[in-house]
Amino acid sequence: MRSERITRKSRYQLLAAFSLVAAILVLTGLAGCERKMQMHQWSGQTMGTFYRITLLPSRGPQPNHRTSELRVQVDALLRDINRSMSTYQLDSEISNFNSLESESCLLISSDFAYVLAEALTIAQASEGAFNPLVAPLVNRWGFGPIAQVSRLPTDAEVKSLMALTHLDNISLTDTSDQLCKLNSRAQLDLSAIAKGYAVDRIASLFTEQGYSDYLVDVGGELRVSGLNPEGDRWRLAIEQPITQAAATPGIHEVVHVTDHAIATSGDYRNFFEHEAQHYSHTINPLTGYPAQHNLVSVTVIAKHAATADAWATALLAAGPEQARYLAVKHGLAVYLIERDNGRMVHYNELSGSELDPLGNITRKNDVPKDFSAWHSRGFESFLAE
């Protein structure tokens, strides 16, 4: 077959963009604060991206652990999760499982077992829009740890790889954390939930040590607890999708959050273009192809970052109509941004029937040209006035 030239944004451009977005989110949460307490902030690298911590002194009895000790614990925790779930590490648990032959089993860690069980739960709830066995498709489309592809997959290839995404290709024993593979070609990819889980683990560590006010950010997946340095709910930004006219991140919407996690998935960062066609890194497990629709950004707020992380990916893959359906069905707190040919409107779930919520304009915020926005009933309480 002939070779085809495929253009792709570089990894370094993406990391720089993610770092800038993270800075916007953190600075939005801290702008104008003069809280008379010592605040600890630090950052580092993990999972091929960054992490950032904002930790405020406890409002109750002071914890026994010094911040320097907590930093060591956070780094150790992130290394453990990476060694468990990174497909870029050849000796990780997930890589070891992916290399197993058919009818083979692997005893996995409690972290791995928990994340996989949560992934399988959301796979069912999302009606297949989220799928932890999507790795063969992700790799073939060039978005995994393997080298970039030089040609697009054929329909026959996609159909063959789709068979590997069936959830019955693996089995997880609840009592022994033994994970078995029934098809040697089946492979797991937990990247759409692992960063969120890392956020949850760090948050649990801080809570266990007596901290009640903090922000944890791993690669743009965030969880906040308590109050910000001003003594208010944390103010976080939903990013304005990047366009040719606006190549740097801006703020689309501001939300007020406490004791919740927030995650956003978009189709405008990690992608390639071929013959004027945009191919997003978000693979729809139900078709085997990169998602092709007008939905450009999905933000989900949930109690746990792993839940928000996975649902944001699932809803972006599902597309706007199915995303709204799933958000209403499961009572999710969801905010969607869609390319909409200059209508510049904002709807919410209450403006129409239960499963057809698009009706009348109900929110008069400044929606940029060529986009429309929609939020579910569960998202309403988080929106800034």
Notable features of this structure?
globular, 385 residues, nine-stranded mixed sheet
Explain what this protein looks like in three dimensions.
The protein has 385 residues and is α+β, with helices and mostly antiparallel strands. It is built from 9 helices and 17 strands. It has helices spanning 11-30, 67-85, 93-98, 110-125, 135-140, 155-162, 191-208, 305-318, 320-330, and strands spanning 7-8, 40-46, 49-55, 104-107, 170-173, 178-181, 214-218, 221-225, 234-240, 250-257, 260-266, 271-274, 277-280, 295-302, 333-339, 346-348, 371-375. Strands 2-3-7-8-11-14-15-17-16 form a 9-stranded mixed sheet, sandwiched between helices. Strand 12 and strand 13 form a beta hairpin. Helix 2 (67-85) runs antiparallel to helix 7 and helix 7 runs antiparallel to helix 8 (305-318). The longest helix is centred in the N-terminal third of the chain and has 20 residues, at 11-30. It is globular and about 60 Å long. Residues 1-36 and 352-364 have low confidence and may be disordered.
Please indicate the percent range of residues in DSSP E strands (runs of 2 or more): 15-25%
| Count of discrete alpha- or pi-helical segments spanning 4 or more residues | 9
Secondary-structure element series? EHEEHHEHHHEEHEEEEEEEEHHEEE
- Please give the share of residues in helix: 25-40%
- End-to-end Cα distance, whole Å, is 56 Å
- Parts with pLDDT < 50 across at least 5 consecutive residues: 1-36, 352-364
